[in-house]
Amino acid sequence: MDVSQLEPADRDPKKLRATAIKLVIFMIVSGVVLSFSYRRYQENTSDSRRPSFETRVTEPEVELLTADGKSRNLQDLKGNVTLVLTLPKTPNPGSQPSLDALRAVMDEFKATPQKPKVLVFVLDGSNSNPEEMADVLAEYGEEPEVL
Predict the structure, then answer these.
(1) Running DSSP on this structure, what letter comes out for residue 63?
(2) Which of 22, 29, 89, 118 could cysteine-pair with 124, CB 3.0–4.6 Å?
(3) Are strands 117-123 and 82-88 parallel, antiparallel or unpaired?
């Protein structure tokens, strides 16, 4: 091929604009299609309809005031698997799925020497009688420490 015979390409702004618009439309349509396909795949392969999530508390010194008036912080939980659960003062049928999930997780840890810590937030409205939750906590492990 003789390069001396080649001519420079003419850039047609209309064709360039049309190509750019086609590429942008293709990217948007393919993104939408992939998003819907991924959601459908998740729904088909998921065991439950509940979304899974994992989160980290980024504040280094979150203070927790326990029902007995003691102050605790995240350093007490550091390095441990911690399960967080909210319960009403008197457990009702609506809280049963949470208790069943807690029981299933604790059953998985029966054979391990280090059990996860259970952090229960009691939706009470008053700070009296934290011992009432001791019966609930006793079902899921050894002697509970009432915090």
Answers:
(1) E
(2) 89
(3) parallel
95 within 8 A of 84, measured Cβ to Cβ: no
- pLDDT, one tens digit per residue, over 114-126 is 878 777 777 665 5
* Residue partners of 105: CB distance under 8 A and separation at least 6: 83, 116
Evaluate if pTM is beyond 0.70. no
Domain count, the chain: 2
Is 146 strand, coil or helix?
coil
Low-confidence spans in the chain with pLDDT less than 50: 144, 146-147
28 and 88 part of one domain: no
**Is residue 87 classed exposed, middle or buried when 0-12, 13-18 and 19+ CB atoms within 10 A define those classes?**
buried
Question: 103 is in which domain, residue-wise?
Answer: 63-138
CA torsion sign for 135, 141, 145, 147 is negative
Q: In angstroms, what is the C-alpha Rg of the chain?
A: 29
pLDDT by residue (tens digit) across 17-35?
999 999 999 999 999 999 9
Q: Are 80 and 115 in contact (CB under 8 A)?
A: no
